[in-house]
Known about the structure:
By secondary structure, the protein is mainly beta. 8% of the residues lie in helices and 20% in strands. The protein contains 1 helix and 4 strands, in the order βαβββ. It has one helix at residues 16-20, and strands at 12-14, 46-48, 56-59, 63-65. The mean pLDDT is 81.
Amino acid sequence: MPTPPTYLVRPEVQGVVPRAFSDSRNPFQMLNPWAPPRYGTWVESTSFDPNIPGKWKGIKLFEILF
């Protein structure tokens, strides 16, 4: 099957803000350190320094994946 044109592919939006306003999630659970795994982990919303392994660099407010 041929690859669909790029204008038909919908990019995926991730980050802290979309996770907080998602219908299926409770935004207050993002602050709870004992929240169940279904609410995600801190690693999903953190950007890391590629030159220094394990060193975090910032928080991903919006992330667009194509």
